């Protein structure tokens, strides 16, 4: 019989994209999730396909040198029923000269770019047709995929949501920063695949690297290393923490990952300046969600950076309450990392689920600046020997802090201090703009028997905890808020929990600070040599902190660290209290004018009042939001904004898609930086 000739074909990008939940990536290319069938249509000319006479088979290939044995190449025939394992192709329906075929990848397939070839043969005659390329992603909807997540609302939040919230500020004043993850925006998928192809493991051994791309543990480790550039590996971001960001973007100014990833690619995979922990974490979250791995950004307050691994953070203070830098160990006000959801078949049972991945360059792991995936369950149980990097994350949430007061003669006195590390571990709630506290997933309740057992297992000394209530107790209180541009008061509250009178010296010192714990100049001080406390008495000592004193040295982190030192004359005992005060920025107001509807013009009115006593110059608003803006909209104000005056402008938008979108705004100026605001906008679908 005559040869079977393929005339045209249709990869049905739109229908397959809808069914595979990748339609938001556009219908220019076929993007699929593994383990899930997809349909293509073949049109033959001359005659139609005859079962039994004609043989059809497909070839799929990924990576530079596809081979069957490494899972990067597969050859499979069109059959009557799907294969149990491996790739399969089944005739769905035949209609004249057109043939619908359902293809399916195994749920353990390598992810990445594939080419698809059709081979036809009739008797001894055969032909081969390259019918296109597609991208394969992880599939959180497939029960046999290692990233399978059972709950649909969670899949929507952790795989599909392109916008979210990141928590910052201080333990006692948690702030919310909006973030545009934008994992389905134009170019982002191809940039994420480029990222995998610029990683050193790929450059060393391309076949081995591609053959391991079916494993989310491997992918997570590669992404964690590639988001920073500390290994000269063409990583995405350069970290900087010294408050000098003039030759790049300040880490506080970003409001999304898309801009960062596009810059990285545009400048030939050169690191983008500059990142800090939440920027590293958010970009890693974008890449992981883009590849189909459920992921979220988490924030740990009072996060320990334990460089020598002894689970103790030693801090040294002079008698005046000034920090003496003798230790590389630090307590960060907060620290962000990523959690990604995956099974851990490489470990004993019980460690599947959320894994901590930390792309901020801090310590090397297996010779590379990356951290994780560390099963959150292993951190909670104190199983420090499991892969990867559990001791480091365990210390971040559990280290003990000891304050040493160094006297003029060099003598050091140990101060009692309760457990302060690893508080209010936070992530965005599923489907809502609120904070979910996930501390309990990292640690057992404080003081519980289980906590003691974990500490024994992890060889952490438990002695310095719970010495709170004997003798003198000291804490620092803030009355009302602390607003940028205003003076405010903090109070040292001292309790005498004994039956005798006590006489003490109280030192109070405030300094501007960065979120990594480093401090700047003093901006408020009080030294009382004679504080007398009657038995069972409580007294409160105010310290006024003046705007004119903190104005010059306040960093973009907006933090002031207040240290109180109470020395009892009779015994020489010292009690220390520390509090980080967050200086609140003004609110950005966003008004939406008109009824928001898909593909119809919408106006947003964006404004902010200058709270300072001096004018703001070089004022810039940056606006972005997936589905609402095409990329970023930047508005530079011509005039300075006078004190108490309003900076205001209007922006025209044409929403591309229906549903819930977030409009995010960042405000920069010479004296007020990194001010963030957002507004949820519900876009009605276009009337049919």
Automatic annotation (TrEMBL):
Residues 269-361 form the Transglutaminase-like domain. Its cofactor is Ca(2+). It catalyses: L-glutaminyl-[protein] + (R)-noradrenaline = 5-(R)-noradrenalinyl-L-glutamyl-[protein] + NH4(+); L-glutaminyl-[protein] + H2O = L-glutamyl-[protein] + NH4(+); L-glutaminyl-[protein] + serotonin = 5-serotonyl-L-glutamyl-[protein] + NH4(+); L-glutaminyl-[protein] + L-lysyl-[protein] = [protein]-L-lysyl-N(6)-5-L-glutamyl-[protein] + NH4(+). Keywords: Acyltransferase, Calcium, Cell membrane, Chromosome, Cytoplasm, Extracellular matrix, GTP-binding, Hydrolase, Membrane, Metal-binding, Mitochondrion, Nucleotide-binding, Nucleus, Protease, Secreted, Transferase. GO terms for biological process: proteolysis. Ca(2+) binds at residues 398, 400, 446, 451. Belongs to the transglutaminase superfamily. Transglutaminase family. This is Protein-glutamine gamma-glutamyltransferase 2. It comes from Aegotheles bennettii.
